[in-house]
Amino acid sequence: MEAVFQLILGELKQSTHSSEQKCREVATRITEEVDRICSESQRIQASGDIEAWSISLARHRLKQCLKYHQLGSHRGRVELHSGLSAVVYRYITPPQVQSSYQARLTLIEDFLQGFYIESLNAFRRENQLPPTYRPRTLLELAEYMAFTERYGKRRIPLPGRRSQQLIILRAQTFSQQQPPETMVDIEQAAEGGGEGENRSAVSLPQVREQMMAQEPELPEDTLRKKVIKELMRYLEERQQQDCADYFALRLQDLPANEIEAILGLTPRQRDYLQQRFKYHLIRFALSHNWELVHQWLEADLERNLGLTPQEWQMFQTNITPQQQELLQLKQKGMDDKAIAQILSCTPTQIQKQWTKLLEQAWEIRNNLISGAGALTDE
Question: Which of 106, 46, 109, 100 minimizes the C-alpha distance to 77?
Fold first, then answer.
């Protein structure tokens, strides 16, 4: 294993600029883990090429560690939290419980807070570290987060020659039993948080605020989050929870096959759900909350519905005199009830006519707003 140790040590020294001592400690732990796996695996022992296996395993662990190191303390936490959340999303709520999107996110955060502590204790145990050990440097934190990712995805044998990821089994147990909330998070796990320590001083709102803390947001980011929140509320009010779940996974930029696996759908079922979601998305964008959506897309009335001067002229040319009057009244900021009195029609008719106008402007923009893509693109 000396060659493996030197390989890992050299990469850590070159890529992290951590102290020689810290690089050696991390390299030693990774090397010992690789050695243990190679020794205990019958398949590796029977392969006849243990050295190639050990180097491959070492490179894999090194790549994970360096990934979190390059992301940094904050972005690394968010990356790990998002990845594990996607894995447990469909398992964290019992099937008989109908919960909102926000309630499910809260449950996921509560579950993961306990899982981070379990992972830290497993890290200490498997590396024969004292109960007081905690990651203190960025390199050690990156090592711990990489371990947590692998720990959660370990395959646990089940009856009938089946297996399941460890974190999924933990999530299923959590959903069935709903144990007392563990008031710690990954940041506190890095600072100790052993099972015997007093956690009463930490409140869950503070934990969640620390877990998901972001850098100061730009106005457009705040507006985007508002659009997402309102769309989620719109879907839940119409009892479209499956569309809300699909949207939540799309926001994480997951590929279609992973969404199918998480939601337990066939490709055909997922395609049908996608079409239904797009239908509700268009209704939301063109009628239910058009002002918010168009403001976020920089296509509001103050900006001529996002049309260029030439497109705006073409748009006005192609609408009826009544629609032109409706457009002018909307530009003055009048509400539908007042406009309906002026145009001698009902507010519902005004809403329908306005939706048609928005659809025409949408088409003129050559479908640049492409369904969920506009909401999920960063």
Answer: 109
- CB count in 10 Å sphere of residue 80: 22
Q: What is the largest CA-CA distance in the chain?
A: 87
Q: Which residue from 79, 78, 37, 88 is spatially nearest to 61, judged by alpha carbons?
A: 37
Q: What's the predicted TM-score (pTM) here?
A: 0.51
Asked if 34 contacts 40 with a C-beta cutoff of 8 angstroms, the reply is no
Which residues, at least 6 apart from 44, have a Cβ–Cβ distance to it below 8 Å?
37, 38, 50, 53
CB of 29 closer than 8 Å to CB of 4: no
User: Strands, DSSP E only, in 61-171?
Assistant: 155-158, 162-165
Contact (Cβ atoms closer than 8 angstroms) between residue 334 and residue 350 = no
Distance separating alpha carbons of residues 127 and 34, to the nearest angstrom: 12
- 162: three-class secondary structure by DSSP: strand
b/e for 82-98, b at 16 or more Cβ within 10 A?
eebbbbbbbbbbeeeee
Residues 268 and 274: their CA atoms lie apart, in Å, by 10
Paired residues of 155 in beta bridges: 165
CA–CA separation, 68 and 87 (whole Å)? 18
From CA 113, how far away is CA 202, in angstroms rounded? Answer: 12
In this prediction, residue 179 carries a pLDDT of 40
pLDDT band at 143 (very low <50, low <70, confident <90, very high): very high
The DSSP annotation for 174-226 comes to HHHH-PPP----HHHHHT---TTS--TT--HHHHHHHHT--SPPPHHHHHHHH
Instruction: Decide: 193 and 117 in contact? Cβ < 8 Å.
Output: yes
Round to whole Å and give the CA distance between 280 and 285.
9
The conformational region for residue 128 under phi > 0 = left, psi -120 to 50 = alpha, else beta, is left
Distance from C-alpha of 171 to C-alpha of 333, rounded to nearest angstrom: 50
Q: Is a pLDDT exceeding 70 seen at residue 247?
A: yes
